[in-house]
Amino acid sequence: MSLTFDPDALRALATLLIDSGLTEIELEEGDRRLRLARTLVQAQAPAPIMVQAAPEASMPAMSGAPAASAAASSPDAADPARHPGAVKSPMVGVAYLAPEPGAAPFIAVGQTVSAGQTLLLIEAMKTFNQIKAPRAGTITRILITAGQPVEYDEPLVILE
What we know:
Layout: H1 7-20, E1 24-29, E2 32-38, E3 49-55, E4 86-88, E5 93-96, E6 112-113, E7 118-124, E8 127-132, E9 137-142, E10 148-150, E11 155-159
Antiparallel strand pairs: 1-2, 2-3, 4-11, 5-7, 5-10, 6-9, 7-8, 9-11
């Protein structure tokens, strides 16, 4: 893919970014790099798209540290990310609770699951990845909704 900064090509990449549920796309060609990133907003309005392009040598180094998790919505609520039974997302993508639209979900609150059982799917780059139970236990909380974009290391399910 040639990195021409054609407005139609940028619009197509921005649409891909939004449709895939990803927050960032980065392309490199020779000494040129193009990075499109968007911020997730709470409202139903489309998220703004930012475009950044610069020669690779002038780009700042990116930190490998994950972003700090948001505080719990109420002081009494425990942070799900710190829960010992949290099953976290191994990737960025869009989460699905059922194998296809209209089908029964893989799991429900109160359900007992066995180690290796499929809990949900995460679609990334048009590939559906099964997220499996790391151990046997009972589903006490489902922290996501069907079709919700998820980030790396985001808690998805609490398994006790």
